[in-house]
Amino acid sequence: MSSSIDILEKVNQQVKKLKPLVGSDPYRLHYHLMPPVGLLNDPNGLVYYKGNYHVFYQWNPFETTHGSKFWGHYVSTDLVHWKEAPPALVPGDWYDKNGCYSGSAVVVGDTLYLFYTGNVKDQKGNRESYQCLAVSDDGIHFKKKGPVIHVPDGYTAHFRDPKVFRKNGKWYMVLGAQTKNKAGAAVLYTSDNLEEWSFLGTFAGSGHRNAGEFGYMWECPDLLELNGTDILLVCPQGMDSQGFQYQNTYQSGYFVGKVNYAEGNFDHGQFVELDRGFDFYAPQTTIDPKGRTILFGWMGNAVEGDIQEPTVKYEWIHALTLPRELEWKEGKLMQHPVEELKRLRGKETRYKDVNLKGEQQLSLRGQVFEMKVSFNSMEGETLTLQVGESKLTYDQHEGVFTFQRKNYYTSQQESRHCYLQDLKEIHLFKDTSSIEIFLNDGEEVFTSRVFDDVQTDEIVVLTSGSVEMNLQKWDLHR
Ligand code: FRU
């Protein structure tokens, strides 16, 4: 078996060889985190350590398909400008030979602790999983310490994605799991020293006292508290779509309630989707030195069969979302693009108190920009904002917001929707092949990749009734 130094050398060669091809892709993003080559999926190990933000990510450097995952690594002082660091975790030990799967990071004194799932498969495809630890004292080089948790009785080997956090003077770890009867659950562990862990049992999901069955597997749980409210972010797999809900292959959302840490359970309400777009999954949060809860998500999702995004021809696929700050406000989980993103702003275009009626429209141009449109008044049926070949529509009568994009495979239009009582503001970030739309200060968010004709740069606002609005647009540059 090759050593991790040989494998790192192979990764370097792969990156060097394919860099010109990857860089020539017109859909390469301008201000989002992407894999240098190959496939990226979940953000991992978000943490602030010794003056830097660290974002790790699930990375297959050798293919644009899922496979044996590394932890890729980016470092930043401001959440906007990132430097690539060497891969933090390389698969290959007996307990992670088929992938260093998702996990999280915590800091104790001068030491950075990474927790991740070691994925092991035999030749027949049978799976084993181990929750593993790796440590570092410079944030760049990591030493693996091996498994700290084995799968307990009552669960299948779909047991992964440790998120570790501190609460009431103790460490806790929440994990995604599948029970032996093939139902999704989140489980909880506790520890005093991060190395010895005690199992507290199923904490939410199937088998828990106040939940029915909800999907066949839960991935990437994250437990956080905002304004005294406990929020479990989780990604259930196997949900049937219902109306506007659960339209993507896998879902990402949250439950709100109260955790009882002594008993290890969670009284919670209904599942709410975190994002209404086509491409959002596996979000993770960290609390930064400013006390903010910062979230990154994977700007992608599982796709059916062998449908491939256009970037695959250029040997890379997927990206992370922009960093977002979470806020719990009036019973809603709000997502705001972090303040620091203003540093990307270049040339500004501004329209103040513009009235639009009937056939009139307002036209601009841009491919890589930020835009804010706020409405002083709106009367009539619909408001439409066309961004390249995508269309954002608000139907005031129905109280429905729709995002429509061109499907990159069939070229047909496809849409996602949500109910919205009132549209006060659209704040969006467009990159060469992505769009993140924040409605009403982040009350609803739509995240999607968009693969328009590369020349397309038209932006048009129109209405079937009448609106008075303010519009600001900034060209964005890193
Ligand atoms: C979610 C996920 C995780 C797993 C990782 C593997 O997208 O399936 O559950 O740890 O990706 O890359």
TrEMBL record:
<keyword id="KW-0378">Hydrolase</keyword>
<feature type="domain" description="Glycosyl hydrolase family 32 N-terminal">
    <location>
        <begin position="32"/>
        <end position="337"/>
    </location>
</feature>
<dbReference type="Pfam" id="PF00251">
    <property type="entry name" value="Glyco_hydro_32N"/>
</dbReference>
<dbReference type="InterPro" id="IPR023296">
    <property type="entry name" value="Glyco_hydro_beta-prop_sf"/>
</dbReference>
<keyword id="KW-0963">Cytoplasm</keyword>
<dbReference type="InterPro" id="IPR006232">
    <property type="entry name" value="Suc6P_hydrolase"/>
</dbReference>
<dbReference type="InterPro" id="IPR001362">
    <property type="entry name" value="Glyco_hydro_32"/>
</dbReference>
<dbReference type="Pfam" id="PF08244">
    <property type="entry name" value="Glyco_hydro_32C"/>
</dbReference>
<protein>
    <recommendedName>
        <fullName>Sucrose-6-phosphate hydrolase</fullName>
        <ecNumber>3.2.1.26</ecNumber>
    </recommendedName>
</protein>
<dbReference type="InterPro" id="IPR013148">
    <property type="entry name" value="Glyco_hydro_32_N"/>
</dbReference>
<dbReference type="GO" id="GO:0016787">
    <property type="term" value="F:hydrolase activity"/>
</dbReference>
<dbReference type="InterPro" id="IPR013189">
    <property type="entry name" value="Glyco_hydro_32_C"/>
</dbReference>
<keyword id="KW-0326">Glycosidase</keyword>
<comment type="function">
    <text>Enables the bacterium to metabolize sucrose as a sole carbon source.</text>
</comment>
<comment type="similarity">
    <text>Belongs to the glycosyl hydrolase 32 family.</text>
</comment>
<dbReference type="InterPro" id="IPR051214">
    <property type="entry name" value="GH32_Enzymes"/>
</dbReference>
<dbReference type="InterPro" id="IPR013320">
    <property type="entry name" value="ConA-like_dom_sf"/>
</dbReference>
<feature type="domain" description="Glycosyl hydrolase family 32 C-terminal">
    <location>
        <begin position="340"/>
        <end position="468"/>
    </location>
</feature>
<dbReference type="InterPro" id="IPR018053">
    <property type="entry name" value="Glyco_hydro_32_AS"/>
</dbReference>
<comment type="pathway">
    <text>Glycan biosynthesis; sucrose metabolism.</text>
</comment>
<keyword id="KW-0119">Carbohydrate metabolism</keyword>
